[in-house]
Amino acid sequence: QVQLVESGGGLVQAGGSLRLSCAASGRTFNNYAMGWFRQAPGKEREFVATISFSWSGDNTYYADSVKGRFTISGDGPKNTVYLQMNSLKPEDTAVYYCAARTRGGTWYGHAREADYWGQGTQVTVSS
User: Fold this and answer.
1) pLDDT at position 28
2) What pLDDT does residue 55 have?
3) Alpha-carbon span 3 to 119, nearest angstrom
4) DSSP secondary structure string, the chain?
5) Residue 89 and residue 92: Cα distance in Å, rounded?
6) Which one of 52, 74, 99, 120 is least enclosed by Cβ atoms within 10 Å?
């Protein structure tokens, strides 16, 4: 059974920073991708960023709303992924979910392609 465990959420003022972490356990993946999605109250879950691991190099992909402010990184062999969030805005407030897709190729953020999800961590940005 695969488990994704997120950590690092919290309350921060606008303009501040937070770093989220996600670790996968229960199985070792090869040529896979991990990503972050978020869901604000009353809204649908939306894509934030993905990182696709491969032997030839990692590919990252971002939603336009976070490009230049958020950075996704990870350790493929350790099945971990991070999301560094800078210049946070109140509209970034949401529950952030870690996800994993267990096949190769670049993951362009389609949530339906996720095979596993974490339980979510709350990020609240005050104005």
Assistant:
1) 67
2) 82
3) 9
4) --EEEEE--EEEETT--EEEEEEEESS--SS-EEEEEEE-TTS--EEEEEEE--TT--EEEE-TTTTTTEEEEEETTTTEEEEEE-S--GGG-EEEEEEEE-S-S-----GGG-SEE---EEEEEE-
5) 5
6) 120
Distances (CA, A) of 83 to 62, 103, 106: 11, 21, 18
Determine the residue type at 29: F
Q: For the chain, which residues score pLDDT lower than 70?
A: 28-29
Alpha carbon 79 to chain centroid, angstroms: 13
Nearest to 86 by CA among 37, 22, 7, 16: 16
What the block records as the tokens of 59 is 């590919």
The confidence score (pLDDT) of residue 54 equals 84
Contact 123, 89 (CB under 8 A): no
- Nearest 5°: CA angle at 61, between 60 and 63? 150
Distances (CA, A) of 44 to 18, 40, 66: 22, 7, 17
Q: Are 28 and 102 in contact (CB under 8 A)?
A: no
How much is the pLDDT for 57? 86
